[in-house]
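subagent[fold] <- orchestrator: predict structure for attached chain, return tokens only, no commentary.
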Amino acid sequence: MADRTAAGADAPAAGRPGDEANDADATNGHVAQRTVWTETTAAELRSRFDAARAAHQRDRFPTFNVRDDRLRRLDEMIASHGIELAEALVEDYGNRSLLQTIAAEPITASGQVRHTRKHLKKWMRQRRKFAGSSFHAIGGSAVLQPQPLGVVGIISPWNFPVALTMAPLASALAAGNRALCKVSELTPNTASVLGSITSEWFEADEVSMILGGPEVAKEFTKLPFNHLFFTGSTAVGRQVMLAAAQNLTPVTLELGGKSPFIVAVDGNVVAAAKTLISGKIFNAGQYCVAPDRVFVANSRSEEFLDACRAEVAARSEQIDTTSIINEHHYERVINLRDDAIARGAEEIVLTSDARDGSEDDAAAPPRTIAPVALVGVDESMAISSEEVFGPLFTLERFDHIDEVISDINNGPEPLAAYYFGARNEAFEKFVTQTAAGGVVVNDIMIHVGLENLPFGGVGQSGMGAYHGRAGFDTFSHLKPIVKVHSPLTPRTTTPPKPELVEKLMRRTLHHRSGKKKN
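subagent[fold] -> orchestrator:
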């Protein structure tokens, strides 16, 4: 591809999809001839990093036009290849709704990019700050200048490899950075398409996709990035942070946890059941803010379970089941269920079609499981502490909101919390006395798609945030610039009259202490 960092950023790029040289299929934007993308070697990885760092050194503060052009190309790339990416991901899963995939992946990603592009010029401006009333600030003014960090690394997961690569990438490019993206080896078809199309729309020193397994990921985290962004499990997040610490690389960790779902005594039980079942069917519960622990007011629990059964039955004809991503993760979810049952938990099957992959249900799609509730779970069971990432959920009954608060606070902080009920004293107590990355009332996961809100975890569920301006700031250094219009300090703290300064300082201290001078 031709150099896009030159002054003529609005000029068409050679080798870009849509140019005659590509011979693109006009019906779907697919490129007829595409190079098969293979695993990145350690030498290639270092070479791409060095090229990106050298490019950043040549242009440490890209103009608005350059950044806007990169975002435009990113959006056009997603739009041109959205169907291709969705089809590749369906193939990786084995069975997944194409429409659901298109909505959750390319459309969601494009929305993030367009929101970022719309607000970019405002975010890039210097931010005026009050210099303060300090003696040292007399005659001065201050601004914060958003400064690109340099070369950033982005590690994305397998459950939403398009959206969870493109959203942080949009923020990184908007902030003026170069990026290397390590995409998951568990979705190889999607990763291959991402790598191929990115090389058509971007210079390798602008954006580069890295493919490989754990060894490549390990080498990736060792690179001296200016920032490392990771989405994935808490266990792997610890390893990423440990590796980044060797280079003092700051990290943003988007992790997960056991997000609670509370149905208060005054909650709409039917609406809560519909929402919960929808959430466990969506991508088979394979997403970081899926509800894992369901707390239901004791007097409403049977009514809630009946509503769950009714919702599953009503949706049985429309459910487009998603497979668990691979055999390893399928066995992991089944083992969580079987371990809990073996240790005394009660399994409540919400449908006659258990879809557990047995020979009795050979007609079901591979690696699919229907929503199942587990009651009577205790700390001896793996499911009580391990994130499910599947259609199972535990159901716990309570009489007072204090029981729920205590239970949640005794475990790691969740990435999200969901509350069905009135916004009364119990609700306010729940919100203020528990920690979570975000809270949604009378619905689930919608906060993830709101571009104006920061999205991120707290404690064990992650650190840092992105989306919208929060993402731009994550990949920027907000550099203070102080302008002194009248340099009083050097003149007044040196002879011949430093006693005047001493008198002023004494008066300032007495004023701040609230004491009157005798």
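orchestrator: received. Logging for downstream: Residues 62 and 113 are 18 Å apart (CA to CA). Residues 489-518 form one domain.
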